[in-house]
Specification:
alpha/beta, 7-stranded mixed sheet, about 20% strand, coiled coil, G_HFLX_dom, GTPase HflX, GTP-binding, GTPase_HflX_N_sf
């Protein structure tokens, strides 16, 4: 007799495991927020004190019987565990509860599936779901069994389970090929931005830290922002002009979470590479969150996993409007470089300080001086004005143009080189400090 999985539902019993090691312990409030974000209606919340996990059910058989009675009494259609279940544990629990069982990874995958809007986002979610599902194929269609041997059963053929697995492998391979194309397209776009000397800044942080609200406030965009986990799934890029630096590219990315499933990190690698290839990361932190230090550690762990741990990072403490007695300000290190910016994206307090800190960190090699140009270099003068680099203009006795400039040195070198001049020689000869 084969086992059919039960259908899904929205009325759920949430099971949280207490007494685990700090490294694997989950936050019960975050668990409930995840369930709400997925659209579940919480029928009951059960904390199970369990120090040693069992191979059959994860929890003890006595607790399984209690939960089975609770599921029937609540008429629940779903049981969600705040822990990762093995495929066999999931099946055993479904038999015992006679309803669908979901673990933490499956819950997060479901939220991602609801949030994906772009074609790329949907492909990434489907890849993660298929890889998760490939270990959980449980249907066995005996009428298609052709590998037992014996009279009338010899010859080619495969079980339905093997057919499902083969089709899954084919689909996974197709999705990976498509995502590889997306990856190469993103890399091509990044190369174009690097050639144009446009710095890239990426927003990273724990889910629901306020990244999209900050993104909208800085760029006057209308990216979807809500007080829920994983409101943003698809990355968004916008051009942001900074007074002292010129234009930059600002990217809003998917939020991280405690114990982010590895399958999701792999599936979203093309998207997360926006962070690993950025010139600066803005680590948005919920200043009002009591466990913000744990969240910071989780974000840093994921950044290390995607190869972004060496990218310069500026901490942005958001939601200052929920705190009392703290005004927007910049915290600096011993060398005077910006280290943290305290602000409120919701009411806009501190946004100018953030722009200033970004310009300081990206403009370390900034040319800020007076440039003396002969009259024959009028085209270079026009290009400097077009780049928004001219702070002031005057003329000396010889009729040369004196331009007060502020722009990245690499950009100045590029414009000077276009005139057939050597940048270092030209700047040394014609600059007045």
């Amino acid at each position: 007799m084969f086992f059919e999985r039960h259908g899904g539902g929205e009325r759920a019993v949430l099971v949280h495991l207490e007494g685990q090691e700090p490294a694997v312990r989950e936050d019960p409030e975050e668990f409930q927020e995840l369930a709400r974000s997925a659209g579940a209606q919480m029928a009951a919340f059960v904390s199970v004190p369990r120090q040693q996990l069992t191979a059959r059910y994860l929890i003890g058989s006595g607790k399984v019987d209690e939960l089975a009675q609770l599921v029937k009494a609540c008429e629940a259609e779903l049981v969600i565990f705040n822990y990762s279940l093995t495929p066999s544990q999931e099946r055993n629990l479904e038999r015992a509860f006679e309803c669908r069982v979901l673990d933490r990874t499956g819950l997060i995958l479901d939220i991602f599936a609801q949030r994906a809007r772009t074609h790329e986002g949907k492909l990434q979610v489907e890849l993660a779901q298929l890889e998760h599902m490939s270990t959980r194929l449980v249907r066995g269609w005996t009428h298609l069994e052709r590998q037992k041997g014996g009279i009338g059963l010899r010859g080619p053929g495969e079980t339905q389970l093997e057919t499902d697995r083969r089709l899954l492998r084919v689909r996974i391979r197709q999705i990976r090929q498509r995502l590889e194309k997306v990856r190469s397209q993103r890399e091509q776009a990044r190369r174009g931005r690097r050639r144009a000397e446009i710095p890239a800044v990426s927003l990273v942080g724990y889910t629901n830290a306020g990244k999209s609200t900050l993104f909208n406030a800085l760029t006057t965009s209308e990216v979807y922002a809500a007080d829920q986990l994983f409101a943003t799934l698809d990355p968004t890029l916008r051009r942001l002009p900074l007074d002292d630096l010129g234009p930059i590219i600002l990217a809003d990315t998917v939020g991280f979470i405690r114990h982010l499933p590895h399958k999701l990190v792999e599936a979203f690698r093309a998207t997360l590479e926006e962070s690993s290839s950025a010139d600066l990361l803005l680590h948005v932190i919920d200043a009002h969150e009591p466990e913000r230090q744990l969240q910071i550690e989780q974000v840093l762990a994921v950044l290390g996993e995607i190869g972004a741990s060496e990218v310069p990072l500026l901490e942005v403490y958001n939601k200052l409007d929920l705190l009392e007695g703290i005004e927007p300000h910049i915290q600096r290190d011993a060398a005077g470089k910006p280290q943290r910016v305290w602000l409120s994206a919701r009411d806009g307090r501190g946004l100018e300080l953030l722009r200033q800190a970004i310009a300081e960190l990206l403009g370390e090699d900034l040319f800020a001086a007076t440039l003396r140009l002969p009259q024959r270099l009028g085209r270079l003068r026009a290009q400097l004005f077009a780049a928004g680099a001219v702070q002031g203009e005057a003329h000396d006795e010889q009729g040369d143009i004196l331009l007060q400039l502020r722009l990245p040195r690499a950009e100045l070198n590029r414009l000077v080189s276009r005139e057939g001049l050597q940048p270092q020689e030209f700047i040394a000869q014609h600059t007045l400090q």
